[in-house]
């Protein structure tokens, strides 16, 4: 930052003027300059290097310096701020170190079936809100870490057993897999206080474990497993480490392809079919078509059938627009107190498993309601 810095002789001259006239106001009047200008010039006294008082990696956001009637400097206040670029660099170092120390996948899981080359199956998980606490007397259904973990494994076990044998599986986590994203159980943007069941450290541990269990189960049936962990409004930060941890674990396994795309809009292409995914917190379904075509121009241009999947609102809605079918999915998770008190209710808790043919598009699906999983 460039600033005015008078010479030492100039400062001494200004002080003499103040002593001669008895005050800063009178001295400024005699010099023909505003009082604030004289004060500013005195503040920039060359002997004072306030930058040296600031710790490394910090910058001065604002400083306040008083000037005594005799022209000498009085008390000083500095407001400092951590340099955001330094923070970004250090987070990147932490991320790389975190990924470098994670154990790599080295367990050979045999492929038990031979799937149809033309088929691929998408397992839709959205708004799962792992880490949320819900009390049935208040919300109509209980939800906790233990309930969520058990239900998640039941969903994949049942869905894998009851869908056609395909070559490819898509684990499509469309966002808000975690209920909160940091040490404080709040949403990053709105600051809403959330009902949390657990400490953040346990949430991280269980989320990674659940993702790895799901991939391991899918590898027994499908030759290729594509994993998408997208951001939502509840886990925009946490989705980053979830993606990176799963990618690092399967880095040496060619059968597992983990998307590391940080953009909140995602795409999967196979044959004549494109599958688009977005949580729905940034663009609603009716505004989504042009964004997806703009972001995935090449993929869209190569294919004839396009489908988009969103979540966020915990209710089902399907619309057909000019170039694709857009489906908003409900969730398996229970409602929390905030949703219940606000009247934002979902009359169905379910998650679909959709099978596509790379030549013809969607050819079938099963819908897995929460009541079925609870009965297992």
Poorly predicted sequence stretches spanning 5 or more consecutive residues:
1-9
Q: What string gives the helices and strands in order?
A: HHHEEHEHHEHEHEEEHHEEEHEEH
Structural class by sheet pairing and helices: alpha/beta
Arithmetic mean pLDDT: 86
Strand content: 15-25%
Strand order of the largest sheet: 6-5-4-3-12-13
Radius of gyration: 30 Å
Q: How would the global form be characterised? A: elongated
Sheet of most strands: 6 strands, mixed
Word description of this protein:
With 376 residues, this protein is an alpha/beta fold. It has helices at 8-21, 24-31, 35-43, 84-101, 136-139, 145-161, 200-219, 238-249, 289-295, 297-302, 337-342, 370-375, and strands at 58-67, 73-82, 116-125, 166-173, 224-229, 256-258, 265-270, 273-278, 305-310, 317-320, 325-328, 350-357, 361-369. The protein is built from twelve helices and 13 strands. Strands 6-5-4-3-12-13 form a six-stranded mixed β-sheet. A five-stranded mixed β-sheet has the order 7-8-9-11-10, covered by helices on one side. It has a two-stranded antiparallel ribbon with strand order 1-2. Strand 1 (58-67) and strand 2 (73-82) form a beta hairpin. Residues 1-9 have low confidence and may be disordered.
């Amino acid at each position: 930052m460039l600033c005015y810095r008078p010479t030492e002789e100039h400062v001494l001259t200004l002080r003499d003027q103040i002593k001669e006239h008895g005050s800063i106001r009178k001295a400024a009047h005699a010099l023909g300059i505003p009082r604030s200008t004289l004060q500013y010039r005195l503040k920039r006294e060359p002997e004072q290097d306030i930058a040296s008082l600031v710790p490394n990696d910090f910058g001065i956001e604002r400083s306040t310096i008083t000037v005594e009637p005799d022209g000498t400097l009085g008390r000083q206040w500095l407001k400092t701020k951590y340099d955001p670029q330094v923070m970004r660099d250090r987070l990147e170092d932490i991320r790389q170190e975190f990924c470098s120390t994670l154990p790599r996948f080295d367990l050979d899981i045999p492929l038990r079936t031979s799937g149809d080359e033309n088929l691929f199956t998408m397992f839709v998980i959205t708004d799962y809100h792992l880490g949320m606490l819900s009390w049935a007397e208040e919300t109509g259904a209980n939800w906790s870490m233990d309930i969520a973990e058990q239900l998640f494994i039941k969903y994949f076990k049942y869905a894998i057993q009851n869908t056609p044998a395909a070559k490819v599986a898509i684990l499509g986590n469309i966002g808000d897999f975690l209920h909160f994203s940091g040490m404080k159980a709040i949403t990053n943007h709105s600051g809403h206080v959330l009902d949390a069941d657990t400490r953040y450290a346990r949430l991280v541990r269980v989320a990674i474990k659940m993702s790895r269990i799901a991939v391991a189960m899918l590898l027994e049936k499908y030759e290729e497993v594509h994993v998408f962990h997208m951001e939502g409004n509840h886990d925009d930060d946490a989705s980053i480490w979830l993606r990176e941890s799963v990618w690092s674990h399967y880095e040496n396994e060619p059968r597992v392809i983990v998307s590391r795309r940080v953009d909140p809009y995602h795409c999967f292409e196979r044959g004549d079919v494109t599958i688009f995914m977005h949580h729905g917190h940034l663009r609603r379904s009716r505004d989504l078509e042009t964004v997806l075509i703009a972001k995935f121009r090449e993929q869209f241009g190569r294919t004839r059938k396009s489908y988009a999947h969103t979540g966020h609102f915990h209710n089902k809605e399907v619309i057909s627009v000019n170039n694709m079918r857009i489906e908003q999915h409900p969730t398996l998770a229970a409602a929390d107190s905030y949703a219940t008190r606000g009247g934002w209710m979902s009359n169905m808790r379910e998650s679909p498993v959709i099978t596509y043919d790379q030549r013809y598009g969607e050819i079938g699906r099963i819908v897995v309601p929460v009541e079925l999983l609870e009965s297992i």
